[in-house]
Amino acid sequence: MRIAIQGELGSFSHEAALKLVPDATVVPTSLSADVFAALVERAVDAAAIPIENSLAGSVAEHFDLLLEHDVQVERETRLRIRHNLIGMRGAAVEQIHRVYSHPVALAQCRRFLAAHPGMEAVAYYDTAGSVKQLMELRDRHAGAIASAAAASVYGAEILAADIEDNAENYTRFFLVKRRADAAEDPAANKISIAFSLENRPGSLAAVLNELAALGTNLTKIESRPVHGKPWEYIFYVDCQLKKREEGERALSALKAHCAKVKSLGAYAEGVESRE
């Protein structure tokens, strides 16, 4: 199976893709939009995308792309995020003057960076990409913050391990396929739904009451603006299910109150791994 990711080989998305499908061929792309384009154009069989980080919150662009395209979430996994200071082999922490990484990774390592005031934090498009650049530049005074896998892929060295501020750092990843190709999971105990509301008082409360009446456990609710329609919103919810059939009942109940309802997929809930 060919799985597209946003970012370079060695990124956390690369790790998540192999956790979802261990024998997959991972296809790196520059932008999230490119990931979905590759999927819908059948250049790949699936995509692995981050949807939410336990510290930084949701990846808003990916909600929009899931709604825009005829795709479906088939599986979920949760990855423990471990950040490392990475440099050229033989370099020392004291030699590093510039540290490159994705802005979210830099923000999650503020304590380490504050303890090393001689290091300038420089935003880069991708964690693994920052390691790739580091090795191309051959700059012993530059470092990167990324995964251990990135150091291995590009032949770099971990200079300081587990430098994130908070150890309870996890990212949820979705395995996404074209809707026509996605398999139904009989063990599905969670559903993600997108819906827009009729513009009338109490409509959101009515929707939430419908979900509560079905006995589903609402674990997440997120709103996103509707592009081209100022002050109108799409809501995204995740609901835990006792049985897969509850997902279909939830969709039917929402249609009575919503201008638009779309299932983004029913799947088995991912479990945190402390590895």
Radius of gyration: 20 Å
Number of domains: 3
CATH architecture designation of the largest domain: 3-Layer(aba) Sandwich
Number of helices: 9
Overall form: elongated
CATH class of the largest domain: Alpha Beta
Remind me, CATH topology of the largest domain? D-Maltodextrin-Binding Protein, domain 2
CATH superfamily of the largest domain: Periplasmic binding protein-like II
Helix content: 25-40%
What is the string of helix and strand elements? Answer: EHEHEEHEEEHHEHEHEEEHEEHE
Strand content: 25-35%
Q: Low-confidence spans: pLDDT under 50, at least 5 residues?
A: none
**Would you tell me the structural class of the helices and strands?**
alpha/beta
What's the pLDDT, averaged over the residues? 93
Measure the end-to-end span.
Answer: 25 Å
Main sheet attributes: strand count, strand direction, barrel closure: 6 strands, mixed
Q: How many runs of DSSP E, i.e. beta strands? A: 15
Structure description:
This protein is an alpha/beta fold and 275 residues long. Strands 1, 2, 3, 4, 5 and 11 form a six-stranded mixed β-sheet that branches. A five-stranded mixed β-sheet has the order 8-7-9-6-10. Strands 13-14-12-15 form a four-stranded antiparallel β-sheet, sandwiched between helices. The mean pLDDT is 93. It folds into three domains: 1-81 and 167-181, D-Maltodextrin-Binding Protein, domain 2; 84-160, D-Maltodextrin-Binding Protein, domain 2 (3-Layer(aba) Sandwich); 184-275, ACT domain (Alpha-Beta Plaits). The protein is built from nine helices and 15 strands. The radius of gyration is 20 Å and the shape is elongated.
